[in-house]
Write a structure and sequence with these properties.
Helices cover 47% and strands 14% of the residues. The protein is globular and about 75 Å long. The relative contact order is 0.09. α4 packs parallel to α8, α8 packs antiparallel against α9 and α9 packs antiparallel against α10. By secondary structure, it is of the alpha+beta class. It folds into three domains: 85 residues, Orthogonal Bundle (Butyryl-Coa Dehydrogenase, subunit A, domain 1), CATH 1.10.540.10; 109 residues, Butyryl-CoA Dehydrogenase, subunit A, domain 2, CATH 2.40.110.10; 136 residues, Butyryl-CoA Dehydrogenase, subunit A, domain 3 (Up-down Bundle), CATH 1.20.140.10. It is built from twelve helices and eight strands.
C-alpha cells in the first residue's frame, strides 16, 4: 500500500486543520475541557452544524443526496485529523455512519429524499435498535416482534445498550417478522419515530456515572409499512450493510487515537520519573510495538476498501487488538500513579492529570464488550481465519 498523499490530499488535510483551529473552543483537548463537554448536547448540536456547513459530513455520499462525492482517502484524512485534534464526533454519529449509508444502499427513493438530508444537517438524530437482552453478540437471536397489520407494523419487545436513545428522533430497528423462519431469516429492518406512542426509554447508569445508553421498550408501537427498508424478512442482509459501515474509513482515526494515548503514557512516565525504570521502559516499548501492529493492520484493511473489496473477518483481529491495547495502556498509567491514580475529576490534588486516567480506565472496560465481545471475536478469528473446528 502506498502511504504517501497527493498534493490535492495534502491541501485537503490543511483545510481540515484550519477548520479545527478556527472552530474548536480555546482550551479544547485538555483533560477537563473535554470531559466537561462530553454530554453537552447544545455544544454538540452547534459543532455538528459547523461540520455540515463546511462540507465535512457525508463527504463520500452521492451529490444528489447532499454528499460531496469525495474520495475515501479524503474521508480517512478527515477522521485522522479529527482524532489528532481530539475533536468531538458529530452528534448524529449513528445516522451518518450507519443509517445514511444503509439507506443509500437499500432505501427507496422516497426514503432517501425524506431522511438523508436531515441526517446530514443534524436536524434528526438517530439511534440503533439492534441488541437485546439475550441477543447481543448473537444478534440473530433477537425476539422483538413486529406483526404486519394492513399498512402498519405493530412492534412489541425490548432493546438494550441503545446509545443516544434518550435524545434520538429516530431509530433503525431490527425486528422479527416471521417467528417460524430460521433465526437469520424472518428479520426485518424498520425506521421508527422515537416519539411514537408506546416507546419508553430508560437510561442505564454506567460505573463512570454517565448514562450514554439505554433500555428501550416497545409496546404496541405502530410503524408505517413505508418505513420498511429492503424486503420483508430480508432485514439481516440490510443489517450487514449497516454493521459494515460502522467501521468504514475509521482505520486512520483509530490509529491516530491510540497513538495519542501512547504518547500520553510515555509523557506520564517522563513526568513522574518512571522512565528510569527498566520495567516501565520495556512496557512502553511493547505498547509502541503493539501500536505499529495495529496501525498497519488497519491500513491493510483500508487498502481493501480503496480497491473496492469488502473487509473480511480480519476486522475481528483489529477489534480485539485496539480494545485490549487501550485497556492495557490505561491500566498501566493508573498503576504508575499509585493510589492517586484512582482519584476522579474534582478531587483535591495538585496534579493536572487527576481523573484523566481513572476515567479512561473505567470507560475502557466497555470496549471489550461493545461492537462484539472479545470472546466472540476470538471465535471469529479461530473459525474464519485459522479454520479451526467449532468447539462443542
Amino acid at each position: 500500500m502506498d502511504l504517501s498523499y497527493t498534493p490535492e490530499e495534502e491541501r485537503f488535510r490543511e483545510r481540515v486543520r484550519k477548520f479545527l483551529r478556527e472552530n474548536l473552543p480555546a482550551g479544547w483537548g485538555t483533560t477537563n475541557y473535554s470531559l466537561n463537554n462530553r454530554t453537552n448536547l447544545e455544544f454538540l448540536r452547534e459543532w455538528t452544524r459547523k461540520l455540515y456547513e463546511n462540507g465535512f459530513l457525508g463527504m463520500s455520499w452521492p451529490k444528489e443526496y447532499g454528499g460531496q462525492g469525495a474520495t475515501q482517502i479524503e474521508v480517512a484524512i478527515l477522521n485522522e485529523e479529527m482524532a489528532r485534534w481530539r475533536a468531538p464526533a458529530p452528534l448524529n454519529y449513528m445516522g451518518l455512519t450507519m443509517t445514511g449509508p444503509t439507506l443509500i444502499a437499500h432505501g427507496t427513493e422516497e426514503q432517501k429524499r425524506r431522511f438523508i438530508g436531515k441526517i446530514l444537517s443534524g436536524e434528526e438524530l438517530w439511534c440503533q435498535g439492534f441488541s437485546e437482552p439475550g441477543a447481543g453478540s448473537d444478534l440473530a437471536a433477537l425476539r422483538t416482534r413486529a406483526e404486519l397489520r394492513g399498512d402498519e407494523f405493530v412492534v412489541n419487545g425490548q432493546k438494550v445498550w441503545t446509545s443516544g436513545a434518550h435524545y434520538a428522533d429516530w431509530c433503525f430497528l431490527l425486528v422479527r417478522t416471521d417467528p417460524t423462519a430460521p433465526k437469520h431469516r424472518g428479520i426485518s429492518y424498520l425506521l421508527v419515530d422515537m416519539k411514537s406512542p408506546g416507546i419508553t426509554v430508560k437510561p442505564l447508569r454506567q460505573m463512570t456515572g454517565e448514562a450514554d445508553f439505554n433500555e428501550v421498550f416497545f409496546e404496541d408501537v405502530r410503524v408505517p409499512r413505508e418505513n420498511l427498508v429492503g424486503r420483508l424478512n430480508d432485514g439481516w442482509r440490510v443489517a450487514m450493510t449497516t454493521l459494515s459501515n460502522e467501521r468504514g474509513t475509521m482505520a486512520f482515526a483509530l490509529a491516530a487515537r491510540y497513538e495519542i494515548i501512547f504518547h500520553e503514557v510515555a509523557q506520564l512516565c517522563r513526568d513522574i520519573g518512571a522512565a528510569r525504570s527498566l520495567t516501565a521502559r520495556q512496557q512502553v516499548a511493547q505498547f509502541y510495538i503493539d501500536l505499529q501492529c495495529l496501525k498497519y493492520g488497519l491500513y491493510r484493511t483500508f487498502s481493501k476498501v480503496l480497491h473496492g473489496e469488502t473487509p473480511g473477518p480480519e476486522g475481528s483481529i483489529a477489534k480485539l487488538w485496539w480494545s485490549e491495547l487501550d485497556q492495557r495502556m490505561e491500566e498501566f498509567a493508573v498503576h504508575l500513579l499509585g493510589p492517586g491514580g484512582q482519584l476522579l475529576e474534582g478531587s483535591v490534588r495538585d496534579n493536572v492529570d487527576v481523573g484523566r486516567w481513572a476515567m479512561g480506565l473505567l470507560r475502557a472496560r466497555c470496549l471489550t464488550i461493545a461492537a462484539g465481545t472479545s470472546e466472540i471475536h476470538r471465535n471469529t478469528v479461530a473459525e474464519r481465519i485459522l479454520k479451526m473446528p467449532r468447539g462443542r
